[in-house]
Amino acid sequence: MNAKLIESLVQIIQSLSEEERLLLEKKLAAHETQTDFDNLAQTLAELRQICAEENYTIEVPPRQDRSHPFAESLNDIPV
């Protein structure tokens, strides 16, 4: 970004009320989350396409429970 554009954006943001700033932050956060999700979805679609083209199957092992010492230690705490 060039310096003039950044300066203009800073001035615009500084002119916003606190309520407007909070709303802008929420909208930017929602956009980031959606963008991350879209990128992940696109990457997985590409992976599926490559696997299909190469006649490759990804083996997913069955789920199994693992020990969780911290969670198990909570059972030992008297209430």
TrEMBL record:
Superkingdom to which the source organism belongs: Bacteria
The protein's name in its UniProt record: Uncharacterized protein
Organism lineage: Bacteria, Bacillati, Cyanobacteriota, Cyanophyceae, Oscillatoriophycideae
